[in-house]
Amino acid sequence: MKKENRTYWKGIEQLKNDKDFIKNAQNEFPEYLPIKGSSNNSRRDFLKMMGFGLSAATLASCEAPIKKAIPYVNKPVDIDATIPNYYASSYVSGSDYCSVLVKTREGRPIKIEANKLSHISGGGTSSQVEASVLSLYDKERLQNPFLNGKKSDWKEIDNYIFENLKFNSKSNKNNYIISNSAFSPSSQKVIQKFKAKYNFKHVQYDQVSYHGSLEANSKSFGLRKIPYYDFSKAKVIVSFDYDFLGSSINHTLFNNQFAKTRAVNSNKKTMSRLYSFESNLSLTGSNADYRIPIKSSEQVFYIASLYNLLAKKYGKTPIQFKNEIVDSNLSMIADDLINNFGSSIIVSSSNDEYVQIIINAINEILNNYNTTISFDTPYNLRNGNDYEFNKFIKDINNDNIGAVIFLNCNPAYDHALGSIISSKINDIPLSISTSDRMDETASLVKVIAPDNHYLESWNDYEPIKGFFSFSQPTISKLFNTRQFQESLLKWSEDDSDYFDFMKSNWKKLSKSEGINTNFQIFWDQCLHDGFYELKDKKTFSLNSEISNLLKNVSFWIDQNYSPSDGNELVLYLNSSVGDGIQANNPWLQEMPDPISRVCWDNYLSISSKLANELNLQIGDMTTQKLLLKLDSGKEYLIPAIVQPGQAEGTVGLALGYGRKKSGAVGNNVGQDAYEMIEFLKGYQSLTIKNIQLSNSNEEYRIAQTQTHHTIMGRESVIQETTLKKYVEDPNSGQYQMKIYTSKGYKKPEDISLWKGHKYNNHHWGLAIDLNACTGCGSCTIACQAENNIPVVGKDEVLNRREMAWIRIDRYYSSDADVHDLKGLEKASENPDVTFQPMMCQHCNNAPCETVCPVAATTHSTEGLNQMTYNRCIGTRYCANNCPYKVRRFNWFKYHDNEQFDKNSSMNNDLGKMVLNPDVTVRSRGVMEKCSMCIQRIQAGKLKAKKENRRLKDGDINMVCESSCPSNAMVFGDMNDPKSKISKYLKIKRKEENKLQVNEERAYNVLDELKVSPNIWYMRKIRNKKES
Amino acid sequence: MIKNSSYRIVSKMNFTSVIFTYIFILFSYLNPYNLFAQDSDPIDNSIVSNGEKIFKGNCTVCHAINDVVIGPALRDVHERRSEEWLYAFIRNSQKVIQSGDEYAVNLYKEYNNTLMTSFDFNDDELNSLLEYIKSESAKPIEVAVVEEDNDLEISSGAQSVVSNTTVNILTTLVVILLIITLVVLIQFNKLSKKYILLEDTISGKKLSESDKEFIEYKFNYKRFLKSDFILGATTFIFTIVLVRSCIDGLYTVGIQQNYQPAQPIAFSHKIHAGQYEIDCNYCHTGVNISKSANIPSVNICMNCHNAIETDKPEIQKILTAYEENKPIEWVRVHNLPDLSYFNHAQHVKVGGIECETCHGPIKEMDVVYQYSELTMGWCINCHRETEVNSKGNEYYDKLVALHGKNSKNPLKVQDIGGLECSKCHY
Predict the structure, then answer these.
(1) Which chain A residues are within 8 Å of B256, Cβ to Cβ?
(2) How much is the pTM?
(3) Which CATH architecture has domain A565-701?
(4) A420-479 per-position pLDDT tens digit
(5) Which end of chain B is flanked by fewer CB atoms within 10 Å, N or C?
(6) Could you report the per-residue pLDDT of B319-360, keeping only the tens digit for each?
(7) ipTM of the complex
(8) Residues of B numbered 287-346 whose beta carbons fall under 8 angstroms of chain A's beta carbons: which are they?
(9) What's the CATH architecture for A7-21+709-1022?
(10) Exposed/middle/buried for residue A669 (C-beta within 10 Å: 0-12, 13-18, 19+)
């Protein structure tokens, strides 16, 4: 057995061995934690309170409060109290889309689940999709239409708009409809109708523009679309800063496809290889087998050089340009691509159409079109056009706009030129917004006609050509809002209902599809499934113009790109707050960034070299603000963190923060970066060159949820190996501590004091594949929604009191020796990254159970470690004795408490509608932790019992498992030899109470403690080239 | 009727009465009418009982065998109408009436133009339903049965009185014996004193020291009462009683046993569930499928009360609620705390527990009250004592087999983790 000598550390503090860090590493919490509301109460006060409490309790008990039970007047047939109903629907926010199932209880949506039937999103969700159910119950949503800043009604605003539109049609000014990418066929028909009547132009934009890529495809193949990538067929993937696992279009599907290529077992011992060139450490980069940190502005040189290497091999004309790069990595990639001809994908984030043309050329040389990349079913999710938007801005500047309608978009905030819109919008005679809140744009327009939330709306979508998807209302409208389609129909003087309008479109489509059965049956089936796929997907014949286009590329590169020594700023979308549309969602704000583990902030991520140059003082949860000066002269004070893997000469900053008018939760969190976006020859660029950085020495507290949990050199936490070693020896990378006894070395399990438990009925277990987990974090938000987990706010996260039941630990690794501090530092510049979802391990020999003085945490006959809130007296012994640090203590009452008003799912009547009625809302002073979704286990068991049968796979899904886009988790009954988990882990039972897991990759975290967890991890395998 | 009275007798839980019940049940099986019914169609038994289930679950709301309720009495209906007609009418009466069937139209008019609800039964179900009606029709009109029933009930009641007196006599005997012993002891004491004195006077000897002491000994009650021992003991007992009653008192905090709030509508379970024997499931639709049994929605009340007793003020309240689309705000009687999870389907559908086990004699309640304590101790106790209803449920097969290996006792709920915290608290 070979021992890996890798060292893992969780943060810079551990690496540097800071004084503070060493002091605090031994403690669970830092010292001197303030307790809000504590005062100098004397013992006498305490006794008074006790006395009062006792008498109050006695008095209160004399007369129990009268509770009402109010049944329906007319009970709907398919709704039974306490039984959830599921409806297929579509999540749409900005230009993003996901197929979902909405779980409703007594007519209110409480949870978004993945639609496993639909092929569009790959049967998973993302954190933003999971969180969107809370946005429905956001009290900051507009509750009625507004006219000139005053509350109004629909009749009044309709009349106002009619009059103005009529008046406006006399003038020669241009009229605009502005929206994010539109991909709803029926809505587009409505827009067409309106456009035709009043002479409007429809301009689309995306928060992060795909203009370059779209233009390149348009010029190369004559189709202005993003093609369909099938990562599951790709053996080699090269990504140039394109975060297809984290923030790109349809990343849930990409995660799913990518995970399929990473699955390794005794029958399939091959894997895809992912190369990533990037500046900021993204999810894609951290999942890459080879990550090459580069300056974003130099991306083009790498791409062109790679093209030249391939062109040489396949006898094409190379691109002549000045700064050709000769890099061993590039030649290795070229070789790999040549070896996998026709089964690779090369993608880039560049918004420069010439760069994208080279990317297209590479994919063409490698014969990837119609194998891994297809224009037969392209994406409709990104249609934004920078040139057209610039024309709109030009018209605004020239006062040449008669009317503008902002359809569910907020360009005043999320467009680089938003400031121009906000300064000039007052001069436009008629400005309308359909925003759901008083956001940066809506607060400036004359008329606000608020749209419904997507969970209250009818709609159809075509996110991928030929793949349709439906939205249906899962709750009646909460407020006096109206779907924008209905508003547009009304303003086009068409009184038909949008639902009827949409249905009639589908009637036509069903005929053209040759559906001869009753339309209603077809329609019901569509709504039931939530999607419809065209029977005949037409193929798109590719007529490539690339060779002609390449002629201009050399000149373009030399003219526009040159290497620079200065620092550059690289903007990106993170996977929590994302584009900022849902910034008022506290679940997303408190979700730690998968890489930096920072929440409630955006920050400049800088390399340790730059930090040393700037003399940045980073303490425990403290940092300093840097003064960022852009070329344009704008100055910003932004806190910075040191990010291992940050490319030298680059600084990262997330978009989506710094909102001014999103609502109480999202306002003034972080710094708005949209306004920093630059324009290069008319299109947006997220790379801002020539920035100046200096240390302001202003201290800033930054909330991070990791760095304080230390590994302490225990190699049994993360195990990994390489594909080659795994093929040679499936046990490679295994670490097993042996303990010396009088009879020689023994495995820890052989010298246990514990007798073990006997599980007659079920034995629940969960297997997590570290190879599949990409760290996206959708499970964490899904868990938050399912288990009523409170949001504690930034201050409490700073006190290490976050409540998440499942967290995703991120470990950086290095090949250097533990004692070689210099070596460690060098490797930290570009570490390998491993993600590890960590929740209660449901130990069979649970250390928490033995220390609880009141038996509030006990073991069940099904292998679960149960937590009984009402027995808990809050000694926190269990948390101290838990080796995994997964127990969370309720330091405060987070519900109905003004101090925690950001915990909006528990502090106002509207927000409380999202709570899961099957899970207790915990009160102050009790411990809580992952229950393995006991409510779902019980419900699944009951279902089987009612049907007089044994449980089978699929009856019970843990919420983290079902939300995972890459299917990294397998839950099931380890006692059932037929279950998926038993086969996955190759479980055999020799003795009644001893379970034997024969899967070579499976291991328990901290196995040497012999706490015998029921959560199994599958060793991570990297596809490294080894000679 | 027979089933019902036997239930009542069993509920008295008296050994002898149980024996008598068995004898009674035995007799009821030997009942000539039953024998007759079985003779006519030997495979009938399960079909008839199935039909009975369907009848009680769906039809009793509007129909009885012998009486006109909302719809006609169903005695001998199979002789009045053909099978096909009946099938069609039960499945969709409206269709039959609209088809112009004379009998159906007349029936519709005769019963105040009340439409019969359509039931989507399959042929087997309808067949068993008709078989049940046939078997019921074959029985003589109920009066006789009722009399017979009463007789038996009285005799078994008398039996239980007898057994009670046995207990009483035994207790009296013990008490008398105790008194006799006491008297004998006192007499013995007196006699022995006299004997010593007599012996001495006869022998003329002086009394020995010990004898003297024995004879002269007089009990000082005053000193006895003031002694440390008595004072201490009294204080101790007093404190114990006080503390105990305090603790007992505290344990009743939050327990709402016998809680009987006034309801907005004077709905009587005694009439609906008792007198008319409407199946609980008819109104409490969730009891077999979900966590909550469901307070019936107004439209369920309206199934009957759009025709029955519509002029009564209490029924008027339902009508108003229905017309104004305003839900009725019933007062919740059973308030389980939020921290505990209870599922009706688990207990009723899976566990096969009768409603009365927890809700008490609901069929005799005019106003519902909380019959059980609904404390955790009460729950746990039941989980300790109750056997798992594992028969015919494949889910439990493995558990029963494993349990059978290690134990001769039946499989109780506690044996499959019924006492674990996370079964009810999460």
Answers:
(1) 64
(2) 0.82
(3) Beta Barrel (2.40)
(4) 999 999 999 999 999 999 999 999 999 999 999 999 999 999 999 999 999 999 999 999
(5) N
(6) 999 999 999 999 999 998 888 999 999 999 999 999 999 999
(7) 0.85
(8) 289-292, 294-300, 321-322, 325-332, 335, 338-339, 341, 343, 345-346
(9) 2-Layer Sandwich (3.30)
(10) buried
